[in-house]
Amino acid sequence: MEYEILMEKAQEASKNAYIPYSKFPVGACVLTENDKIYTGCNFENSSFGLTICAERNAIGSAIVDGERKIKAIAVFSPKKDMCYPCGACRQVLYEFQSENGIDIILKDGDNLKIFKIEELLPGGFNL
Ligand code: THU
């Protein structure tokens, strides 16, 4: 299944996380409307607030390649089952959702759990 592949790529990306402070690696993998795949990992900074989450790193790579609509994202941490996206990343995902929304794919042991963005961010902000 395609979502298994997205999760594998998220897992692979988490290995490159730059996490000297939290020691909490996260990887993400987005699937766009054009069936392109982009990965990201978190990277931290001595000035802690500058940390970039794995999800926003992956979304940024899609954006710079000209993609604008995201169909699905897998999020993975080896440290935590069900590694939900933070609130900031949920709002960024909301911005780039496809016509059918976004499936957010999390790993729960050997299983994948899938949520729609509306479930994780009811009433997302738009202009
Ligand atoms: N982190 C992510 O990469 N994505 C999230 O949605 C939540 C948190 C990262 C940020 C930081 O490097 C580490 O996890 C601990 O908060």
> Kindly state the mean pLDDT as a whole number?
97
CATH-assigned fold name? Cytidine Deaminase, domain 2
By CATH reckoning, the class would read Alpha Beta
The CATH architecture classification is 3-Layer(aba) Sandwich
Number of domains as seen in the coordinates: 1
- What structural class do the secondary elements suggest? alpha+beta
Rg: 13 Å
Global shape: globular
Spatial strand arrangement across the major sheet:
2-1-3-4-5
Number of strands: 5
What are the main properties of this structure?
single chain, 127 residues, Cytidine Deaminase, domain 2, 24% strand, globular, binds tetrahydrodeoxyuridine
Summarize the structure.
The protein has 127 residues and is an alpha+beta fold. 29% of the residues lie in helices and 24% in strands.
General description of the model:
The structure is a single chain. By secondary structure, the protein is an alpha+beta fold. It has one domain: Cytidine Deaminase, domain 2. 29% of the residues lie in helices and 24% in strands. It is built from 4 helices and 5 strands. Strands 2-1-3-4-5 form a 5-stranded mixed beta sheet. β4 and β5 form a beta hairpin. The longest helix has 13 residues. The mean pLDDT is 97. Bound molecules: tetrahydrodeoxyuridine. Tetrahydrodeoxyuridine (THU) binds next to α2.
